[in-house]
Amino acid sequence: MSDALKHECGLAYIRLLKPISYYHRKYGTSFYALNKLYLLMEKQHNRGQDGAGIATLKLNVEPGYQFMHRLRIAGPGAIKEIFTSVQNEVTELERMYPNLRDYPGLMKGYLRFMGEVMLGHLRYGTQGKNSVKFCHPFVKSDINPARNLTMAGNFNLVNTDELFALLKENPDETMRASDLGAMIDTVHHFLCEEEVKSPENPDVEAMLRQAASRFDGGYVCGGLIGNGDSFVLRDKHGIRPAYYYHDDEIVIVASERPAIQTSFNVQQHEIKELPPGCAVIVKADGTLSVPQILEPAEKKACSFERIYFSRGSDADIYRERIRLGTNLAPKVLEALDNDLKNAIISFIPNTAETAFYGLIKGLEDYLKDLKVQRIIRNRNTMTDAEISELIHRRVRIEKIAIKDVKLRTFITADSARDEMVQHVYDITYGTVNPHQDTLVVIDDSIVRGTTLRQSIIKMLDRLKPKKIIVVSSAPQIRYPDCYGIDMSRMADFIAFQAAVELLKERDMNHVLTEAYIKCNTAREHNRLDEENFVKEVYAPFTPDEISDKIGQLLRPDDVQADVQIIYQSIEGLHEACPHNKGDWYFTGNYPTPGGNKVANRAFMNYMENKAGRGY
Question: What are the tens digits of pLDDT across the range 381-438?
Fold first, then answer.
């Protein structure tokens, strides 16, 4: 994605089912769980670079000793800093007790983060500020040990104010500014109710049913409870991803399947996707269950996970990204007038590489069919040289653009800054026949288009192509997200800007006014969540009309080449990613009522020239 876009957090959960001494004997280290937690987090580091945190729950601790510990660090190097801190603690203790590693029981007692249940979190801030106090996990302390609760998650909730009102709480700034604050308060409220009913063995399923029925959003959240129980819960639409594995030694849950495969050397078929509305629950005695907490609704798993967010090392995601590129081949051929001889295909940035291979496959399939047809049709008239030239014809592939080191714009004047921004990417000279070749560059998605306009298109134009075609493996992003992705302001979307420009050009500004009036009326009647009125802004235009306008908006005045933008179709997306049909940012079809409210609020903010989020 050429534009920086922050996205979902990552979750890692480990529950040992044997005493720590068992792992010391079998694997030669008492740090088995900590090492695996580190691997799970590192293998998902793409999911969060604003900060990280870990929490440990120790089982069967003597009364009076602390049994729950947490460490959080903000910043892009947080994972390394956290586990360096843990290592430093070990080193310090070994100075006093040189043979400590030989006694797992003592190590558990002395080391804060050695325990049987562990929760790791990687944070990208979509709500709240990027400081350590907003990093997960959060802790809800209670004088009753069994009511202590630690939670972390990958989610956004859009009804935090309603949750605090339900609980009749007036939280501090940190809790109110974070959706995890509302979530942990809600879960803790119902934990206390269940603990009153059964102090020794609270009903975790009942607690989660009561709490989750009140959440509006997409989420995967994990929790450690003071009595030794723990859980990971997924929303009923399956919006956010979660996978789990278990055997007689361990239970693992993570946001991405390859993280589990690599960290524990298990096969893909051994790892299960946590079904929508279900929870992995492990009781204090090690009993595992995966109950249905909420009745599953229509599955709306986030398609952006497949397009961009999740790492492409997952076997299914790799195939889906290949297919996304292949599905774009007919549109690209149409834009080229089938002239592959004078076209060069490339990709920007590296995350678009897999879709690039799919696009090449689609173009090569066309070229193979073309060769066969021409040889069959002209076999009696073609010379050997002509046949040889035709057979050896290939789709032209070049590494056109390379992301350079991050450049700092020390001079703040706009003109100087724009000049520096142009050089974020470098180009490969000598690859293009000037004024003859068309450059086709695939991106995984185009959100704002800022980097395309300010840097990429200008740099590509220096090669003097006849035309520049930028291809997006994702459809047009038209609506804000409120389930974990940092896309919340209408004015940021180049597709929305294009629709607004078309309305102005066609003297149709009344469409904006009428949609705004409908939003205001719905807000007055507390019905802002019933319908997405922003759809009316796009309704007068075809996707191709908006794409053409985007091409005009993204073409700088000083660029000589023609510029065309091609987007994936919704149908092509669903065909490539059949099991992840969450497409609300493309279609405006939100899986929960809160999504409509967010879209309408974001549009009202635009019309009122307000910079705030819609949630």
Answer: 999 898 898 899 899 999 888 776 555 544 444 555 455 556 666 778 888 999 999 9
Q: In what order do the strands lie in the sheet with 343-347?
A: 396-397, 343-347, 438-443, 467-472, 562-567
Q: Comparing C-alpha atoms, which of 615, 341, 574 is closest to residue 466?
A: 341
Sheet holding 288-289, edge to edge: 138-140, 149-157, 217-225, 230-234, 279-282, 288-289
CATH number, residue 37:
3.60.20.10
How many whole angstroms separate alpha carbon 467 and alpha carbon 303? 31
Q: How many domains does the chain have?
A: 2
Q: Is 58 in the same domain as 101?
A: yes
Question: What is the Cα–Cα distance from 253 to 36, expressed in whole angstroms?
Answer: 12
User: Are 286 and 332 members of one domain?
Assistant: no
At CA 373, angle to CA 367 and CA 375, rounded to 5? 100
**Least confident span in 6-20, 21-35, 201-215, 353-367:** 6-20
**Whether pLDDT at 4 is above 80:** no
CA-CA distance, 473 to 359, in Å (whole number)? 9
Nearest 5°: CA angle at 530, between 524 and 531?
100
Phi-psi region of 203 (alpha: psi -120 to 50; beta: other; left: phi over 0): beta
User: Residue 282's domain spans which residues?
Assistant: 10-299
Which pLDDT score is estimated for 411? Answer: 45
Separation CA 61–CA 67 (nearest Å): 6
Q: What are phi and psi of 457, to 5 degrees?
A: -65, -40
- We report the CATH number of the domain holding residue 490 as 3.40.50.2020
For position 501, what pLDDT does the model report?
98
> Does the residue 4 lie in any domain?
no
Tokens of residue 536, six digits: 């009316």
Decide if 558 is inside a domain: yes
In a domain, 53, yes or no: yes
For the chain, the residue count is 615
Q: Which of 447, 485, 6, 13 is nearest to 217 (CA)?
A: 485
Closest C-alpha to 186, from 169, 202, 198, 174: 169
Q: Using CA atoms, how far apart are residues 307 and 407, in angstroms rounded to an integer?
A: 27
Query: Is the residue at 56 inside a domain?
Result: yes
